[in-house]
Design a protein that fits this description.
The chain is of the alpha/beta class. It contains five helices and 14 strands. The chain has a single domain, classed as Metallo-beta-lactamase, Chain A. A hairpin with a 6-residue loop joins strand 13 (178-180) and strand 14 (187-188).
Length: 200
């Protein structure tokens, strides 16, 4: 039996859906964000008809964004089905197993999203910031799950934990109203918690 998919609106024009993945033994969380008249899908996991219907209400999907090489998830299948391009960091390509249509490295912005490299995390680790929505979507660099709570990716999963912790400090300069995770529920107004986590 397929795992249950949960769906929620976590901000203006931002949908979040989650499903437990027995293979990874963790929750996969994904987002759809309406921006500049387009809908952007970030690290999309498998979705059911209620999720598809909710996305259609936001608008027409324009692109899929991946935060690292571990997050291929359902992106290739969805890109083909929706006939939209994929965007990902260059260092993620080998682990993704396919070549994205757009490499985000060095781009100041794409569809209103600003790619932020976070070296030290997973392969090609990036976050995406939307300045108008004041929303930041992270991949594996930060998690917000039952058990560990709000935390930095455990050292054993990092390419270089010290470098990741240093690179995450760049996020403190951003005004963030909603922090979105690839593993865990959205965190509203995370400023104080993020500062405490990264400066501890």
């Amino acid at each position: 039996m397929p795992e249950k998919i949960t769906l929620a609106q976590v901000g203006p024009g931002i949908l979040e859906w989650s499903v437990y993945d027995p293979a990874c033994k963790t929750v996969l969380t994904s987002h759809a964000m309406s921006a500049e008249g387009r809908v952007l899908l970030i690290d999309p996991a498998p979705m059911d008809e209620p999720v598809l219907a909710a996305i259609r209400k936001l608008g027409s999907p324009a692109s899929i964004f991946l935060t690292n090489g571990n997050h291929a998830r359902a992106s290739r299948k969805l890109a083909e089905k929706m006939q939209i391009p994929t965007a990902a960091p260059a260092a993620a390509v080998k682990e993704l197993g396919f070549k994205p249509d757009v490499i985000v490295d060095g781009l100041p912005q794409i569809y209103g999203l600003h790619p932020i490299p976070l070296p030290g995390g997973g392969a090609g680790e990036h976050a995406y910031y939307h300045p108008q929505k004041k929303s930041l979507c992270v991949g594996d660099a930060l998690i917000h799950l039952e058990g560990p709570g709000f935390a930095v990716l455990p050292d054993k999963y990092c390419l270089d934990a010290k470098i990741l912790k240093k690179s995450l400090l760049a996020l403190l300069s951003l005004e963030i109203h909603t922090l979105l995770f690839a593993h865990g529920t959205a965190l509203p107004k995370p400023g104080a918690q993020l500062k405490k986590l990264l400066q501890s």
